[in-house]
Design brief:
Order of helices and strands of chain C: EEHEEEHHHH
Structural class of chain C: alpha+beta
Number of helices of chain A: 6
Number of strands of chain C: 5
Strand content of chain C: 15-25%
Largest sheet of chain A: 8 strands, antiparallel
Largest sheet of chain C: 5 strands, mixed
Shape of chain A: globular
Number of domains of chain C: 2
Number of strands of chain A: 8
Order of helices and strands of chain A: EHHEEEEEEHHEHH
Helix content of chain A: 25-40%
Strand content of chain A: 35-45%
Distance between the termini of chain A: 33 Å
Number of helices of chain C: 5
Structural class of chain A: alpha+beta
Oligomer: heterotrimer
Distance between the termini of chain C: 41 Å
Radius of gyration of chain A: 15 Å
CATH topology of the largest domain in chain C: Ubiquitin-like (UB roll)
Chains: A alpha+beta (209), B alpha+beta (795), C alpha+beta (179)
Amino acid sequence: MKVSGSATLHAPVEKVYAALNDPAVLVRTIPGCERLERAGEDAYKMTLVAGVASVRGTYAGDVRIADQRPPSAFVLRASGAGAPGTVSADVQVQLAPGEDGTTVLSYDADAVVGGMIGGVGQRMLAGVATRTADQFFAAVDAVLTGAAPAVAAAPAAGDQPAVFTAPPRPPGPPGGQLAAGVALGAAAALLGVLVGGWVARRAAARRTS
Amino acid sequence: MTTRLFGEPIARREDPRLVAGDGRFLDDLGAGALAAAFVRSPHAHARIVDVDVGGALDVDGLVAVYTYEDLDGRVAEPLPLLIPHPSLHAPRTAHPLANGVVRHVGEPVAMVVASDRYVAEDACDRVLVTYEPLPPVVGIDAALRAEHAVHDDVRDNVAAHMVQEVGDTRAAIAAAPHRLELELQIERSASMPLEGKGVYARWDAADRSLRVYSSTQTSTSVRMALAAKLGVPVDRVEVVAPDVGGGFGVKIVHPWPEEVLVPWAAIRLGREVKWVEDRREHFVSSAHERGQQHKVRVGFDDDGRLLGLEVEFLHDNGAYTPYGIIVPIITSTQLLGPYKPGAYRVEFRSLYTNTVIVTPYRGAGRPQGVFAMERTMDAIAERLGRDRAEVREVNFIRPDEMPYDHGLIFQDGRPLIYDSGDYPASLAKLKKLVGWEEFAAEREQARAEGRRVGIGLACYVEGTGVGPYEGAHVRVETNGKVVVATGLTTQGQGHETVFAQVAASELGVPVEDVAVVTGDTRRFKYAVGTFASRAAVMSGNAVALAARKVRAKALRIAGEALEVDPADLEVVDGVVRVRGVPDAEIPLATVAVLANPLRYAFDEQAKQATQFAVGGGAEVPPVADDDEPGLEATDYYSPVRSTFANGVHAAVVETDPDTAEVKILRYCVVHDCGRLINPRIVEGQIHGGVAQGVGGALYERIVYDEHGQLLNASFMDFLMPYASEVPTVETDHLETPSPLNPLGIKGAGEAGVIPGAAVFAAAISDAEGLWIDRMPISPSELWELRRQKTPEGDA
Amino acid sequence: MSEDLHQTRLLVNGVQHTVRVPARRLLADCLRHDLGLTGTHVGCEHGVCGACTVLVDGLPMRSCLLFAVSVDGAEITTTEGCRSADGGLGPVQRAFMECHGLQCGFCTPGFVTTVTAFIRDHPDPTEAEAREAIGGNLCRCTGYQNIVASVLRAAELVGEEGSGEPQGGAPVGREGSGA
């Protein structure tokens, strides 16, 4: 399944690149992430609670960032498995300067979805993926523009392996309490996206309704 | 003394649960299943540009949304062409979900699965499909003009072209003393069972097996189709037809898109999935029938004897041809009725239109053929000034001419040979029943009073019991109960009763001790299905043959136990006994126990069959080489060809001089379907068929506008008759037993509807002095015909 | 978006039920799927065929045209409630069986309730009245002739045995055969 899209972020390219690699940012913007653990250079283990409609569950995944060309491009290779199914994805992320100091981010994901969530239909999966990506980028944008509270910087890579959790959120769906995240990059969010991070989004919608 | 059950009008065994509300129809099953619903095309012909499911994602309870791109393996291929034919040169079938193009309003585009049907429909409403409408082809005339094509690669819209001829028809007509040409038309109608289609699927992941319940007329064929499509081994697929609320032909088509997609989704999702269509869906996505236009040319002599009959007709088959050209083939052959046509030529073209598919509806092309033939007979009689019954009699095939070979190929691929029937006797009975000879005086009397009454009659012959076969399994259990299974299905024909009557008669047991299962592939796997008035002939005979095997085995075993010759034994009320010797007897239950040599006794009775109890020769094995354990047998009935039933109907109508309403004063039926297993059930079938004949003649038509929109997709506008519209049917019958099967029976399921259009057209014509060549006819249409006639006086 | 649920009390075949259903839940679906009384059937969902007919406070009504919430507090009789007190077949049901008044059985529940109410109000109908009484129910199988006979026979049986007063829906033992 191919999913692609773009978003405009209101910060220069370098800041966007840094944010997308900053676990403290990602922790509060990736839907459904529960636990992140650095597993090596540019590699992380992640636990995600997500689902597509009624098909939801917990995923354990590996994420690897490759082909890094700061500040304009990187590739994310991710795979995850859980009771509802399996996902593996290669995502190309490109950042380019936009007008007035903005950044135009474009992503191209090539994903294979298996198991039960793979059974819900391509358009539904793609629809969920696109939606959640939009949500993720809007959240990143809010952090970048200061609309969201400031975040402390993450420890540099090379320190002891770190486990990150998210700051506490008001009660939401099971797994709504997010664990701190290690830098994952946008693609990790897309992993959550591909397995349907919109669960968290709907939880957010319920909280505000 | 056991009552001879064959031929008895006993009460139905299935009734207690049905009247009490304990039936198990498709939607009564699968309480926990997910619900499927479909996004269907609102256009008659369009390209699908985009399917946007984004709006549906917010629906609480949504599980899945599928379009064509999600289909894999053979599910992505077109649905099967069930009955190929060499004359069907351009067959086309649909994909389960539209692949880029939709060709009729109602064609499924996307399938939604959700927690319940309400939610699924909410999600369907939010799926946005962008279409690029294409010019639709609606109606036979438009299809023929072929300004536009339904299928890009069938530019003339002709799916099939077939000619059958016996003799030199054109020469015969040219040489005849008299000639007539007629144009006739019947409009589209539909089976319209009260219960629509439904599918409920369960995938057992641990077992890797699939069970599918479907409201179908052929569970065995659905099973084969699903195994092929879904790539599940056949022995891992079971299909069950539960209680089915009517079929009338529409449920013989398989696999429907939904029949494939619901099990497919169940496997993908690992959840039970159920789909039940609503009435509107049934109108726009099941099947219709009856729409044909005929041109008849006939040459005849001074007595009205046919010398040459040429029929050319156009058949509207809708957007696809999954059922091949069975309907027009039946029209072509059954048009002949009980007559010798002299030379006969029939040619048809089956045309594509952007409308719902056309597959058999009770009668399956016969009503159209009979309409053409019977109107021709009436026209001949009018031309010659002769009695309409006499003109028919002159053309009858005589009983001493049986078997009569028409020299044509019938819908079963076999020669059209009538095996038996006494058409003169049938007609004589009907004339007596309706008072044919006396009617002219009644008509005059009525006219003097300012009333318009008329009488019509129509004859038909019906090929029934088509092959290739049906089978049955009969087993006597150790408690004396008899269990019968046959693979074909039931939609109200009382099979649990009639097959029990056959088995009970053959075995000599009380009918209450016989239980019958139909349409369950777990119980019987080799079968064809219920259609074409074949079930009683096919499974009735199969049950009899299997029961006879069981009886023979029982007598052999009982003979050994009682030490008598089996020829001296009889079975009465479930007891095997020596004729004329009281006390020399053994219950069938015990014989069943003895039929299965046991090591282990599982109950008191079984002890009798254990090795030390039985003892016996040390030189022979407990089960002989050519024998099997158990008092049971399977047998099949396979006919050399169809067996032909026949009938004559008459109707007396009164038309209102002011409003042109048609009132049915009398309706008489004489039918001959050979020997009757249960006369009450046969009569019920005739009543039901007559009601559909009334509907088809006066009320029911499927109306499409020029854009391919179905204008009357509900019961509010598709008018099925209520009790106020259906007359009391007076019946008499003849029995010319079929020489083709052991029980001598013929089918009766479709008999009631076949001559409906013809008989009412004739009666109304007679009342009005107008020529009716098109059915159905509404009061306003009759009124218009009157208006067209009166300015110049007689037409 | 999820729907609001409304507490609805229904006295069905003599048994009190409380259900929580969305406002748009049809009474037919509530009876069939929420209460498991699948005897009532849905043939058209637009009020023409009559297969869904149940008695609401004694009057025959199309349950496919009623929202369950709109009959909160009502007394409802379905075909299951037309059985006899001991759980066997009631007189109307027996009449249909005796007269071969059904074939596929799908429309039958609507006829049973309709006829039950009719005979209660017209204990001694003529054939014409019987035909008129069932004039709002569609049957595709029988051609109505035997149904008319069933109505007349039902009147006889009710007259002999006392009223066909609807009873609780105890399950009928499975006579006969079949899956």
